[in-house]
Design goal:
This protein is an all-alpha fold and 418 residues long. The chain is built from 21 helices and no strands. The longest helix has 20 residues. The termini are far apart.
């Protein structure tokens, strides 16, 4: 019997054929043996003319058809291959195991053609056959799970992934890949309930080698855990990935940033700060992740009133390529606030004035700059400059009603004072 890779034992055994199709079978076998693209195409044309047989004759016809179909499939003639697989699948006198093999290969062809509904039907048909070999069953579960995940049918994919994970022969990087797909399905369907012990058992040991195939799904599952309210799971996944070998540098940088986020969600502030620092100073540049890590670090320092430390990070972020123009301006405002709260009023004023000039296309940020400038000028008893700030706020079409109302009241009070 042929296995799932299309090998067909006995193609050279034309002596088993009856006299009728014997010459045609021998000619097809000879062309398959040549192995050239032209010879395989000719074998495909000849195979379409093979009559059905009985007993050993049908067995040999199916072997020749299967080998020809696989050769056509490899050289990209999908429709000719599909027709030969279909004939084996639908021939009632063919051996059940051969029909199951042909059904699987036909499903593969249809999947490659993006005929997903037909492919799903064929994989399910193969799984329903008692004669399907363990290899074909395993591969059908694998392909079905992949297709269902592509269609975002997570609940439907789960039984096929569970079947793979229950298969003792399913080992190595591919098993780990589908174990992460299993976690993803549990998270997507709201059914995640793995104990820490079960999670630890599923993860590879620290210091091991991780395949590139696995890295993407590993980080996808960790981010899904963040989104679905499992920051502890996400943290454990990021930290273990950072302990593995073979992880690309930019992924490590991003993992440090994401780990910082999970520690922040868990209110573990010191660890959060530490991992944001790791991301910022990582040797492999990932500007977007490093800018976000610096921003979160700056915000945490700001909230803890460590204005001197925070202002340095906001200063760097003003020109960070990992942030858009508006976010850069927001960082410039924050930088000015830090300088103001740290008692560096002159520097704060210059920063706010620069920010107000840059903020013209960004509705609202120039208003915030004027509010802070007015606060600064009032503290320094420069009421005329403060009044100018409030007047600009009143004239600014992007100012909010409460901002205009507050500016109007302060303007009235300052005019009485002066």
């Amino acid at each position: 019997m042929a296995d799932s890779n299309g090998s067909a034992a006995g193609v050279s055994g034309g002596d088993q054929a009856n006299e009728g199709p014997a010459a045609l079978l021998a000619e097809i076998a000879a062309r398959l043996k040549l192995g050239t693209a032209e010879a395989i195409r000719e074998a495909g044309r000849l195979s379409l003319g093979l009559p059905e047989g009985t007993g050993d004759t049908q067995k040999y016809v199916d072997e020749v058809r299967y080998a020809t179909a696989f050769g056509l499939e490899l050289q990209g003639d999908a429709e000719s291959a599909a027709e030969l697989y279909r004939r084996i699948l639908e021939c009632e006198s063919s051996e059940p195991a051969r029909r199951a093999d042909a059904g699987f290969r036909l499903a593969i062809v249809r999947e490659a053609q993006k005929q997903y509904d037909e492919s799903l039907r064929l994989y399910r048909h193969v799984l329903a056959q008692d004669a399907s070999s363990p290899t074909v069953v395993r591969l059908s579960h694998q392909q079905l799970a992949g297709l269902l995940l592509l269609e975002r049918c997570f609940a439907d994919a789960l039984p096929h992934i569970e079947a793979l994970l229950a298969d003792a022969e399913y080992r190595g990087p591919l098993r780990l890949f589908f174990w992460f797909r299993y976690l993803l399905c549990l998270l997507k369907t709201g059914g995640f309930a793995l104990s820490p012990e079960a999670l630890a058992q599923g993860l590879p040991a620290p210091g091991g080698q991780v395949e590139e195939l696995t890295v993407g799904i590993w980080t996808e599952v960790a981010q899904e855990a963040e989104l679905t309210g499992f920051p502890g799971l996400a943290k454990d996944l990021y930290l273990r990935l950072l302990e593995m070998n073979g992880v690309p540098g930019v992924v490590r940088t991003n993992c440090c940033y994401r780990a910082g986020l999970t520690f922040e969600s868990l209110a573990q502030w010191d660890e959060s700060l530490r991992y944001y620092e790791k991301a910022i100073h990582a040797p492999d540049a990932y500007p977007a992740a490093q800018a976000q890590a610096r921003l979160r670090l700056a915000e945490l320092l700001f909230l803890s009133e460590d204005f001197e430390a925070a202002q340095e990070h906001f200063r760097v972020l003003i020109a960070s390529p990992g942030l858009g123009p508006r976010r850069q301006l927001e960082c410039q405002l924050r930088h000015a606030v830090c300088l103001l709260r740290a008692g560096r009023a002159d520097e704060a004023r210059r920063e706010l004035e620069a920010c107000r000039e840059r903020a013209t296309p960004h509705a609202g940020l120039d208003v915030k700059a004027d509010l802070l400038l007015a606060e600064l000028f009032e503290a320094g008893k420069d009421f005329r400059s403060a009044c100018a700030c409030y007047e600009r706020i009143l004239d600014n079409p992007s100012s909010e009603p409460q901002e205009r109302a507050g500016a109007l009241l302060r303007l009235a009070d300052l005019r009485r004072v002066s």
